[in-house]
Amino acid sequence: MVEFRIYNVEKKIEVLYRLRKKSVINPEAVYVSFPYQIENGKIFLDVPGGNIEAGVDQIKGSSNDWYTVQNFATARNSHSQVVMCSQEIPLMQFGAINTGRYQAGAVSQSTNMYSWPMNNYWVTNFNADQVGEMQWSYFINSSEDSSLEYATKFAWSNRIPFLTRVLPAGEGNDGTNQVKNILRINSGNVLLVNMTPVENEKAVMLQLREIGGKMVDLSFSSDIVNIKKVEVCDVVGETVKGEQAALKLKPWESKFIKIYW
Length: 261
Hints:
Number of strands: 19
Low-confidence stretches: none
Protein name: Glycosyl hydrolase family 38 C-terminal domain-containing protein
CATH architecture of the largest domain: Distorted Sandwich
Structural class: mainly beta
GO molecular function: carbohydrate binding; catalytic activity
Organism: Phocaeicola coprocola DSM 17136
Order of helices and strands: EEEEEEEEEEEHEEEEEEEE
GO biological process, one term: carbohydrate metabolic process
InterPro entries: Gal_mutarotase_sf_dom
CATH topology of the largest domain: Beta-galactosidase, Chain A, domain 5
Oligomer: single chain
């Protein structure tokens, strides 16, 4: 069964698949085709720590028949793009179904995308069949903003939705709304990858990534606490010295930041 969900409040299509898979031990695979047609388009995808163009920005000799997509894949040109992401299915093939091609240096033949939910081609450490009730979904969006910054924000907001809580109205409510930020990152092209409190310190540690391909100065503010100090640290929280200690992000750079209050 395939279900399409069209949203009223935002430009987004959700495609939900439900499948009752029979036990089959002959070699087989399930592909879902997304035949996007983007004139002069190229396919980019999110990988751990950044973005690459499929078949171009990757280690020589690495896989180009299929890819493990971290958060999104996008077919884009200079003035538009189609962005797709999935919570459950990371394997994708680009341009065509390329299983078994094994061609060094190959790039996408078109802007078609093929999601690869399952197969039983592997010959070791896997069952010979895949059987049972299965469900997975995709989020799709198009935009005249063809930047990877836009694609990254769309994908992350859908894969990791904003946590909300509904509070009942109290007595004496005058109807005014108060909006306050615990922490505000004052830069639009910076992605908050992770944040965690620092044990035994009045501090939090942030992992940040630049997603727009532009140099940016980092600054922070809060409506709740008084920020006393901000410094660059390493992955274990130790203070960084020298040039790397600057509160700046180069294009596509990642840094760890510690904020004290």
